[in-house]
Each structure stands twice: as structure tokens, then as C-alpha cells.
């Protein structure tokens, strides 16, 4: 059983069972009562960093509606704790829960820069944009300690290879020097995720991400340095933040974003359990309404795996969100274009230096 005490600084409020494991771990009520009596915490809320040693780091993305061909993730799990995060389910592959484990047990791939270098130096590799954070945020708090993402960016620069970045953390500005060098060769594009203009909402949805003002400042600083920025206004959750889409689009446009994208929230796998438990604790007055609105966007279910529809949604509510996005593009992004990245330079730099002939 779970304690009713709110776990501060975390999105998920419990660990859900791992579908790949035979046994289920749960805390008995008598143990929780003992902890309350003794004034002790039943478990540590401290983040653990666990080194792992993968054989490869670049992943081919087979899903036809994701918008990228290759991705890489220096970390598995994410301390940001976004309650809606689709990446939570992948933590089960490592033997952990998609709930609190996803936020508290961060798997660290210290060999990522070397694995990346070996991949893009391979004679059969043809340059394609590799996206950092296709799954979990490459600038989550762990990056300040390990600096794996920075080292990977140095590899991309050395070999003049195009790289995309997705993040919701202002720590990316630490690497402005490398980003400017990459951008001088049209080798980098940045996607900044921002889901609300309300700090109260932001803290509930994604407790350990950068503040809204820091996110907007990040967009502005990158844009002032001519680094192309796309804002990810995602996910749109009806009843929580979908009504903000126009204001969000206006704000990111005013801070220099060249484009924006969005998705309609879906709650696949364990995320359905985690989100439902969270919203009943965080927003009890509107929990059932929000869950029903999400169902209305996905044919009566909060779970949707249909390619093409799973991130777009369907029905009247989803149509309203798409209409707002269309209006936002006409009002705030007319004439703006997010540039294509340069795939032509890499072949000349495969040996780490430009060929003369």
C-alpha cells in the first residue's frame, strides 16, 4: 500500500508494477504505520545515479510519426519528473518502475561520447541528423554533474555532424559556445519544451524543470545568437493547459522561436496509472473531468497507440486544439522558417580533419 503523504519534488507519487517482472513490490500498511510512529521515511527520495555500459548509443527511430530518424540518450530515466512523459514506460525495460524509479534512478552512459564517435566515423555511416533527447532530457540535472551532453556536442562539432536537441532545461545555455560554433556551419537546431505560462501548473506537471521565465529566456538567448529554436508546446492536456496554446505561441514567438509544434496528451502503458493517481492527488476537484476530456480525444480511452492519431487526437476537443494552433501560426509565425541542417560537411571530416583533396 502507498502512503497518502505527498512526495515533494516528484511528479509520480508511487511506483507502478513493472509488466516484465513476475513479482510485485509493495509497502505494507503496518510498515508505513511503523515509519509514521518512528518519524522515519519509508524510503529514500534521493536521486541515485547508476552507471551502465551500453554497446551502442545511436538508435534508429522506426515510428513513422515521431519526426526523427535517429536519436541518442546520454541518460535513461529523468529527474525532471514530468507526470505525462511518454519515456516513463521505457524504464521498465531496465527492470525498474515507470513511476518514482523513473525519476529517482537515473542510468548514466559515461561512454556515450566514445560510442557516438565510433558510430559517425564508421565508413558506412551517411550523415543524418541525430537528435539528443529522443527519449529522456539530455540537460536534466544529471548533466551538471557528468557533462556527457557537452562532450557529445564536442564530437558533433569535431566531425561537422548535424545534431538536434530537445530540452526543457536552461542548462543548455552553459554550452552556448559550442552551439554557436555548430550553428556557424548550420549543424544544430534546438527544441525547447514549454507547456504552460503558469508557474503553479508548471510545478505540478514537471516539478524539476526550469521555470517558465528561464525557458523563455533560453529561447531568447539562443535566438539572439541566431541558433534556430522550435518551441514544443507539448503535450496539450485538455482541462489543464490546452486553453493556453495561443498565449504560449505568442510568448515563444516574441522571444524569437521560428516555429512551434504540439501534441495532444496520451497516457500509454503505466503512464495511465501514474497520471490518474497523480491528478487525483494534485487536482482532485477536476481529476475526473480531465481524464474524461483525454478520453474524448482518443476514442474513449486514455491509451492510444494508433500511428498518426496517437499524438494528434481526434474528436471535437482535439479539433479545437488544432484550430488554435493553425490560428497561432497565422498570427505569430507568418514568414518564419526553421532551417534544414547541413548534412554535406560530415563526409569531409570523418577522420577528424578536413580532407584537402
TrEMBL record:
Residues 61-301 form the Radical SAM core domain. Pfam families: Radical_SAM. SUPFAM superfamilies: Radical SAM enzymes. Keywords: Iron, Iron-sulfur, Metal-binding. GO terms for molecular function: catalytic activity; iron-sulfur cluster binding; metal ion binding. NCBIfam families: rSAM_PA0069. This is Radical SAM protein. It comes from Flagellimonas nanhaiensis.
Amino acid at each position: 500500500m502507498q502512503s497518502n503523504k505527498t512526495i515533494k519534488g516528484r511528479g509520480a507519487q508511487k511506483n507502478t508494477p513493472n509488466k516484465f517482472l513476475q513479482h510485485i513490490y509493495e509497502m505494507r500498511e503496518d510498515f508505513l504505520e511503523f515509519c509514521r510512529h518512528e518519524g522515519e521515511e519509508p524510503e529514500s527520495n534521493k536521486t541515485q545515479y547508476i552507471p551502465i555500459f551500453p554497446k551502442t548509443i545511436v538508435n534508429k527511430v522506426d515510428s513513422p510519426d515521431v519526426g526523427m530518424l535517429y536519436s541518442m540518450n546520454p541518460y535513461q530515466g529523468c529527474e525532471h519528473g514530468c507526470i505525462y512523459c511518454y519515456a516513463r514506460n521505457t524504464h521498465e525495460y531496465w527492470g525498474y518502475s515507470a513511476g518514482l524509479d523513473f525519476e529517482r534512478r537515473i542510468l548514466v552512459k559515461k561512454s556515450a561520447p566514445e560510442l557516438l564517435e565510433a558510430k559517425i566515423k564508421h565508413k558506412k555511416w551517411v550523415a543524418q541528423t541525430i537528435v539528443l533527447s529522443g527519449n529522456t532530457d539530455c540537460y536534466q540535472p544529471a548533466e551538471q554533474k557528468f557533462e556527457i551532453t557537452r562532450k557529445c556536442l564536442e564530437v558533433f562539432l569535431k566531425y561537422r555532424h548535424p545534431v538536434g536537441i530537445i530540452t526543457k532545461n536552461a542548462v543548455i545555455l552553459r554550452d552556448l559556445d559550442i552551439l554557436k560554433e555548430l550553428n556557424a556551419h548550420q549543424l544544430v537546431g534546438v527544441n525547447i519544451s514549454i507547456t504552460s505560462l503558469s508557474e503553479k501548473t508548471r510545478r505540478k506537471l514537471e516539478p524539476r524543470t526550469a521555470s517558465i521565465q528561464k525557458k523563455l529566456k533560453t529561447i531568447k538567448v539562443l535566438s539572439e545568437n541566431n541558433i534556430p529554436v522550435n518551441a514544443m508546446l507539448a503535450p496539450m492536456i485538455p482541462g489543464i493547459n490546452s486553453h493556453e496554446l495561443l498565449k504560449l505561441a505568442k510568448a515563444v514567438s516574441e522571444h524569437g522561436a521560428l516555429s512551434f509544434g504540439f501534441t495532444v496528451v496520451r497516457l500509454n502503458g503505466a503512464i495511465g496509472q501514474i497520471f490518474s493517481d497523480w491528478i487525483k492527488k494534485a487536482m482532485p476537484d477536476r481529476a475526473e473531468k480531465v481524464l474524461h476530456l483525454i478520453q474524448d480525444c482518443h476514442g474513449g480511452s486514455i491509451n492510444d497507440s494508433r500511428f498518426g492519431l496517437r499524438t494528434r487526437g481526434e474528436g471535437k476537443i482535439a479539433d479545437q486544439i488544432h484550430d488554435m494552433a493553425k490560428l497561432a501560426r497565422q498570427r505569430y509565425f507568418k514568414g518564419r522558417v526553421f532551417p534544414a541542417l547541413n548534412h554535406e560537411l560530415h563526409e569531409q571530416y570523418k577522420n577528424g580533419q578536413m580532407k584537402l583533396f
